[in-house]
Amino acid sequence: VQLQASGGGLVQAGGSLRLSCAESGRTVNIYAMGWFRQAPGKEREFVAAINWNGGRTYYTGSVKGRYTISRDNAKNTVYLQMNSLKPEDTAVYYCAIKTTGASDYGLIRAYRFWGQGTQVTVSS
After folding, report:
1. Which long-range contacts (CB under 8 A, 24 or more apart) does 11-15 make?
2. pLDDT band with cut points at 50, 70 and 90 for residue 90
3. 3-class SS at 93?
4. 121 near 11, Cβ under 8 Å?
5. By the 8 A CB rule, do 5 and 95 touch?
6. How far apart are CA 63 and CA 90, in angstroms?
7. Residue 25 above 90 pLDDT?
């Protein structure tokens, strides 16, 4: 299973970016896909997730109202639209696949497969 994340870059505060993450390789049961981020010197943290069948979404508080997660089931691709970006959003963003309904959406250990990460830098 391979996850290819793209769409990161450098943007000014207040700007927008759209991240994409496509799954390829062997068939995998996708229960949900999520985005995490890791800033320099900090632990990886949950950003958003989406249930693959029902489409229910989950967000960490700091991005609610600014970020939108969506999916394209046919393409096994998840997106993260990021608006009103702030310098504190600067991090490497990782996408991941959750293969079962066990465990909370916000837990790193709940996700089995991970992408390589894409850098998002927001300048002030």
Report:
1. 11/85, 11/120, 11/121, 11/122, 11/123, 12/122, 12/123, 13/85, 13/86, 13/87, 13/122, 13/123, 13/124, 14/84, 14/85, 15/85, 15/122
2. very high
3. strand
4. yes
5. yes
6. 12
7. no
